[in-house]
């Protein structure tokens, strides 16, 4: 038995591992809620701070961008300096940034604080499932990831509703600010308990931090997302198009440098050998495109309901409850019952189901216009939620089932980075697919047309989201028919998994799991 397996087996006999699991799940839940809670409060922030549409996109996309840019580095730092240590550092930073968001005096301070919050989350989140990976043996991880599926659903349910309640109640005249300040007691509790109950772990071999790779990743993402987000406001200047084209050159430079770094010292920021595994490469593409759908839908949905239809935050939040319940229900069923029996077909059914729900929503938005009621939205939202639940919970298992286990933080960071990068791309594309169809000057002259204009923009956005889901369905054919973790149970599955690991080439990345967190 290897030293890593011995540590895992020893941890498995320690009942404190379940307390540690509760702590890291709470941190993941805090990150999930923070993403969804902000969307519902966007119109209130716009009114209170006089925020422009560009600033609104940066309040959401800035967080996703900082999160995506730092995730791989955060995972690697955990491998090098200790996952518990980085988890506590990230949690502390996230808590401080949440306080700064809640105290923001203007839109610039709020955007800056959200960037800091995203960077801190990038230190915290990759450690969550890396800690799970080294704390629980393989035969227990299926149960643990089922719990993560439920956490995703719970975060989806409670985030918008909690955000709506906190905004509507206007506690102490603070309006939207409590949506950030609520993180303070949760973060402090996670810090105190995490120091006591989480076991420290590091990579089995010494690694080095890849600063050049980190700069190239961050630069490429900024060059792609910033012009998308600001382009419409600035009239799509030439420098924006040049920056987006230049981002492809920087990505190519990153690939070349990471190959050099692998040959030089075996410590690249991005382990390119992972992409030789067909299912992993396809899974990265699914994560990216699914993130685009999520980034587009959740922001335009909020703007449509609260600005276009004139609904209160609480009205909008309650309207989303059936969707969230459907996500949670389907997520639990997919991991526990459906994927072990039907494998990849479950994820593909999820993509088609979600696309069907979006198309039904598009039809109803056009049919009822600005006079649509919440109850009329329930059928498409439930269908969409069921489809999303079938995808989000089992996707990570499917993506990583054929990947060797080693360097847990880097692999989980890479997978979640692509999801967050897709999310940031989707939020940036809102300028094109949503705001691009709205005539600001006409609305300024005829404000009564706001409902119709936002409905048209919402329908256009849904059409794009449905098309992307169609592409996701096709990409999923490259995923394994049945993830290995679901072929057999108990110790037999674990032995098979370990055998695969021992046969893998040196320097390969792990089968550490990272859930597709929806921000």
From TrEMBL:
<feature type="transmembrane region" description="Helical">
    <location>
        <begin position="316"/>
        <end position="334"/>
    </location>
</feature>
<keyword id="KW-0472">Membrane</keyword>
<feature type="transmembrane region" description="Helical">
    <location>
        <begin position="346"/>
        <end position="363"/>
    </location>
</feature>
<feature type="transmembrane region" description="Helical">
    <location>
        <begin position="206"/>
        <end position="226"/>
    </location>
</feature>
<protein>
    <submittedName>
        <fullName>MFS transporter</fullName>
    </submittedName>
</protein>
<feature type="transmembrane region" description="Helical">
    <location>
        <begin position="54"/>
        <end position="74"/>
    </location>
</feature>
<dbReference type="GO" id="GO:0022857">
    <property type="term" value="F:transmembrane transporter activity"/>
</dbReference>
<feature type="transmembrane region" description="Helical">
    <location>
        <begin position="178"/>
        <end position="194"/>
    </location>
</feature>
<feature type="transmembrane region" description="Helical">
    <location>
        <begin position="86"/>
        <end position="105"/>
    </location>
</feature>
<feature type="transmembrane region" description="Helical">
    <location>
        <begin position="111"/>
        <end position="132"/>
    </location>
</feature>
<feature type="transmembrane region" description="Helical">
    <location>
        <begin position="18"/>
        <end position="42"/>
    </location>
</feature>
<keyword id="KW-0812">Transmembrane</keyword>
<keyword id="KW-0813">Transport</keyword>
<feature type="transmembrane region" description="Helical">
    <location>
        <begin position="375"/>
        <end position="400"/>
    </location>
</feature>
<dbReference type="InterPro" id="IPR036259">
    <property type="entry name" value="MFS_trans_sf"/>
</dbReference>
<keyword id="KW-1133">Transmembrane helix</keyword>
<dbReference type="InterPro" id="IPR011701">
    <property type="entry name" value="MFS"/>
</dbReference>
<feature type="transmembrane region" description="Helical">
    <location>
        <begin position="458"/>
        <end position="479"/>
    </location>
</feature>
<feature type="compositionally biased region" description="Basic and acidic residues">
    <location>
        <begin position="486"/>
        <end position="500"/>
    </location>
</feature>
<keyword id="KW-1003">Cell membrane</keyword>
<feature type="compositionally biased region" description="Low complexity">
    <location>
        <begin position="501"/>
        <end position="510"/>
    </location>
</feature>
<feature type="domain" description="Major facilitator superfamily (MFS) profile">
    <location>
        <begin position="20"/>
        <end position="482"/>
    </location>
</feature>
<dbReference type="GO" id="GO:0046677">
    <property type="term" value="P:response to antibiotic"/>
</dbReference>
<keyword id="KW-0046">Antibiotic resistance</keyword>
<feature type="transmembrane region" description="Helical">
    <location>
        <begin position="238"/>
        <end position="258"/>
    </location>
</feature>
<feature type="transmembrane region" description="Helical">
    <location>
        <begin position="279"/>
        <end position="304"/>
    </location>
</feature>
<feature type="transmembrane region" description="Helical">
    <location>
        <begin position="421"/>
        <end position="438"/>
    </location>
</feature>
<dbReference type="Pfam" id="PF07690">
    <property type="entry name" value="MFS_1"/>
</dbReference>
<feature type="transmembrane region" description="Helical">
    <location>
        <begin position="144"/>
        <end position="166"/>
    </location>
</feature>
<dbReference type="GO" id="GO:0005886">
    <property type="term" value="C:plasma membrane"/>
</dbReference>
<dbReference type="InterPro" id="IPR004638">
    <property type="entry name" value="EmrB-like"/>
</dbReference>
<dbReference type="InterPro" id="IPR020846">
    <property type="entry name" value="MFS_dom"/>
</dbReference>
<feature type="region of interest" description="Disordered">
    <location>
        <begin position="486"/>
        <end position="519"/>
    </location>
</feature>
């Amino acid at each position: 038995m290897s030293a890593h397996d011995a540590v895992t087996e020893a941890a498995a006999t320690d009942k404190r591992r379940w307390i540690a699991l509760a702590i890291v799940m709470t941190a993941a839940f805090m990150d999930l809620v923070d993403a969804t809670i902000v969307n519902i409060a966007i119109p209130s922030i716009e009114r209170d701070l006089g925020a422009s549409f560009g600033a609104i996109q940066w309040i959401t996309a800035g967080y996703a961008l900082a999160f995506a840019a730092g995730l791989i580095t955060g995972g690697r730092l955990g491998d090098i300096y200790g996952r518990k240590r980085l988890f506590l550092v990230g949690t502390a930073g996230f808590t401080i940034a949440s306080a700064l968001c809640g105290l923001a005096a203007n839109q610039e301070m709020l955007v800056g604080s959200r960037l800091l919050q995203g960077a801190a989350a990038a230190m915290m989140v990759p450690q969550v499932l890396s800690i799970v990976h080294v704390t629980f043996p393989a035969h227990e991880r299926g149960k643990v990831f089922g719990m993560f599926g439920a956490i995703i659903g719970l975060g989806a349910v409670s985030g918008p509703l909690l955000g709506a309640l906190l905004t509507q109640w206007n506690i102490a005249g603070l309006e939207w600010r409590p949506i950030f300040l609520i993180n303070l007691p949760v973060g402090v509790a996670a810090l105190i308990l995490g120091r006591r109950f989480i076991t420290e772990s590091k990579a089995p071999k010494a690694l080095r931090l890849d600063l050049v790779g980190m700069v190239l990743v961050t630069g490429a993402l900024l060059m792609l997302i910033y012009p998308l987000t600001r382009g419409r406001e600035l009239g799509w200047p030439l420098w924006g198009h040049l920056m987006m084209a230049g981002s492809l050159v920087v990505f190519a430079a990153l690939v070349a440098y990471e190959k050099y770094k692998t040959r030089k010292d075996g410590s690249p920021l991005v382990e390119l050998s992972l992409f030789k595994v067909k299912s992993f490469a396809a899974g990265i593409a699914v994560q990216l495109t699914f993130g685009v759908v999520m980034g587009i839908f959740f922001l335009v949905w909020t703007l449509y309901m609260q600005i276009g239809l004139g609904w209160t935050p609480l009205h909008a939040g309650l309207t989303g409850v059936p969707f969230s319940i459907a996500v949670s229900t389907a997520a639990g069923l997919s991991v526990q019952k459906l994927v072990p029996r039907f494998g990849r077909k479950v994820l593909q059914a999820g993509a088609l189901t979600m696309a069907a729900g979006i198309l039904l929503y598009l039809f109803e938005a056009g049919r009822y216009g600005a006079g649509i009621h919440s109850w009329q939205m329930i059928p498409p939202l439930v269908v969409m939620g069921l489809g999303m639940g079938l995808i989000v919970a089992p996707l990570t298992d499917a993506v990583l089932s054929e990947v060797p286990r080693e360097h847990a933080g880097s692999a989980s960071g890479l997978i979640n980075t692509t999801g967050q990068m897709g999310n940031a791309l989707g939020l940036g594309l809102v300028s094109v697919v949503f705001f691009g169809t709205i005539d600001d000057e006409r609305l300024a002259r005829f404000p009564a047309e706001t409902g119709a204009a936002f409905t048209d923009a919402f329908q256009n956005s849904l059409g794009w989201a449905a098309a992307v889901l169609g592409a996701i369905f096709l990409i999923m054919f490259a995923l394994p028919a049945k993830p290995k973790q679901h072929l057999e149970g108990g110790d037999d599955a674990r032995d098979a998994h370990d055998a695969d690991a021992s046969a893998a080439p040196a320097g390969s990345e792990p089968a550490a799991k990272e859930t597709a967190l929806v921000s």
